[in-house]
Amino acid sequence: MNEQWPYWAQNLSIVFSGIGIIVSLFLLYEAKEIRKSFKRKATLPALNKRLLESSRLLNELLSQRRDNWDAKKFSVELTKLQACLEQSKDTLKDEDRKSVEKYINDIKSFTRCSTQSDAWYFYEQLQYIATKLEQTEQNLAWD
Which pLDDT tens digits describe the chain residue by residue (143 residues)? Predict the structure, then answer.
């Protein structure tokens, strides 16, 4: 049996193979996005809890008198916060990730000899990120 398929059937099979590859790639991309979404839903509440805890500790440190302010404790808390944010930034959406990366870069510029007024900037930025991520968490309830 040495039959050959018609020329148009061979061309049609090539087209359908290409369409199959495109559909497969699209489904792989969608599966990756769904996985990210589940990961985001799982990690965001814990991250928000950690941000609120850090925010409370930083506020307590900043509320102390200027002559009694402990820059070293503030720096240690910022370092812990930086590690937490770096660990979880990959699960965030692009716009949230950009804000977190900017904040992480700002934290890296903080030195222990920074003044208390400089430290308020980091606290304000932390409040911005915490509020933004809380809103993201609330929006995820609708997804």
Answer: 446 778 888 889 899 999 999 999 999 999 998 888 888 888 888 899 999 999 998 888 888 777 777 778 888 888 888 889 998 888 888 888 898 899 888 888 776 657 788 888 888 999 999 999 888 888 887 76
Residue 51 and residue 130 in contact, taking contact as beta carbons nearer than 8 Å: yes
Domain enclosing residue 113, as ranges: 39-140
pTM of this structure: 0.71
Chain-centroid distance, C-alpha 32? 16
Nearest to 78 by CA among 129, 131, 134, 44: 129
Question: Does some domain include residue 20?
Answer: no
What is the CA angle 19-36-106, rounded to 5? 125
- What is the tally of structural domains in the chain? 1
